[in-house]
Design brief:
Blueprint lengths: L2 H8 L7 H22 L8 H7 L7 E3 H22 L4 H24 L6 E3 H24 L11 H25 L21 H17 L2 H28 L16
Antiparallel strand pairs: 1-2
Helix pairs in contact: 2-9, 4-5, 4-6, 5-6, 5-7, 5-8, 7-8, 8-9
Membrane topology: Multi-pass membrane protein
Main location: membrane
Protein name: Steroid 5-alpha-reductase DET2
Length: 267
């Protein structure tokens, strides 16, 4: 079956609005740029071990990393919850998508509060940039889903499969965040080589399951913008996982070179 025919079968025939087209292009272009920058060692956003350990740049306004990540995630969670009130009659697909995204950010906030262990700081401007990007991207995803109301449903309905894929992604992502957190004992600030599960094959299985989570969003939504979000996220996380593997190789002489960055045995 030709690719164009597959798209017709699984995608909504969305209204031909300039907003939709601009958001799709922005998603792909900026995510690709960020991913390539990360892969080549340019840290666009001033947070994480790469920045805290390697950056000599003076930043005027910094906040503790935990506070910075709460600033990054909380506005999107609040926005998702508000969309239940703004669009009360969105239908089952809209409800599933908004619920999945709200659950995604609720999990992130809980992880920041109770799972992740932080030892550094985060530039305030980066916290605001990340927060604004998430808010714009996910608000657009939900709004575009709202615009499909009244449109013909795709011939192939993937929303229930999408919710299953989403649950696999969010559970896997949490599991590997939990393993990473348990590696650092109380009072420890250093880094260790992660081990166990898929860590024996890739250094960033949490990123791999985050991509699975986004694929779940796309299958629930079945809009062109949602799939562009998944592709864009994949570009970015490929670059970041490549940089992460390179960082571990530089810090640990005994880092196993057979361990890939993101995809077992491949990349």
């Amino acid at each position: 079956m030709p690719m164009t025919q597959i798209f017709r079968e699984i995608l909504f025939q969305e209204p031909s609005l300039i907003f939709n087209k601009i958001m799709v292009v922005m998603n792909l272009v900026f995510s690709a740029i960020l991913g390539i920058s990360e892969a080549f060692g340019k840290q666009n956003l001033e947070y994480s071990k790469f920045w805290n350990l390697n950056s000599k740049k003076q930043v005027k306004a910094k906040v503790p990393s935990r506070m910075g990540m709460l600033i990054a995630y909380t506005p999107s969670l609040i926005a998702c919850l508000s969309f239940f009130w703004i669009f009360p009659n969105g239908g089952i697909r809209f409800f599933m998508l908004n619920s999945a995204i709200a659950l995604h950010f609720f999990k992130r906030v809980l992880e920041v509060l109770f799972v992740h262990k932080y030892s550094g700081a985060m530039a305030m401007n980066s916290a605001i940039t990340i927060s604004s990007s998430y808010l714009m991207a996910f608000s657009s995803l939900i709004y575009i889903q709202h615009l499909t109301e009244g449109s013909s449903e795709p011939n192939i309905d993937l929303k229930y499969l999408g919710f299953i894929v989403f649950m696999v992604g969010i559970i896997g992502n949490f599991y590997y965040h939990f393993l990473l957190s348990n590696m650092r004992k109380k009072g420890e600030n250093g880094y260790k080589i992660p081990k166990g599960g898929l860590f024996n094959l890739v250094i960033c299985p949490h990123y791999l399951f985050e991509i699975v989570t986004f694929l779940g969003f796309s299958l629930i939504s079945q809009t062109l913008f949602s799939f562009s979000s998944t592709i864009g996220t994949s570009f970015y996380l490929m670059g970041r996982s490549y940089a992460t593997r390179k960082w571990y190789l530089s810090k640990f002489e005994d880092f196993p070179r057979t361990v890939k960055a993101l995809i077992p045995f491949v990349f």
